[in-house]
Design brief:
Elements lengths: L1 H5 L14 E12 L5 E10 L6 H4 L9 H14 L11 H4 L7 E3 L3
Parallel strand pairs: 1-3
Antiparallel strand pairs: 1-2
């Protein structure tokens, strides 16, 4: 939490009149070593986006694909003799610009 606060990721402010706040929750995770010993305790503050309404926060979109589409792409790639690469963009949402202020209600 202190790292995010120090980097200016968020600020603790009073809720503006008429603004809508999203509930949030902490997700806890233990990082363990090869022998099962606890190396690090992690906590992540997450917005409860599952509770938002489309009319409140505009359009939301998370691109996903179904298994049959993945199989089709692999089949076309093999048939054409091409090389297929897979990648994952970790934390892409952290770099995305936001054109509105978002208010989170801190968990109890």
């Amino acid at each position: 939490m202190s790292t995010c606060y120090d980097k200016g990721t968020f600020a603790i402010v009073d809720l503006q009149p008429g603004a809508i706040e999203l509930p949030s929750m902490f997700q806890y995770k233990l990082k363990t070593g090869p022998n099962g010993e606890t190396i690090k305790c992690k906590a992540q503050l997450c917005a409860r986006g599952d509770l938002q309404f489309d009319s409140e926060f505009g359009e939301t979109f998370a691109p996903t694909s179904c298994f049959s589409m993945i199989r089709l792409i692999i089949a076309i790639t093999v048939q054409a003799g091409l090389t297929l690469y897979q990648f994952d963009i970790q934390g892409a949402f952290l770099c995305a610009p936001i054109d509105q202020e978002i208010y989170l209600k801190l968990p109890p």
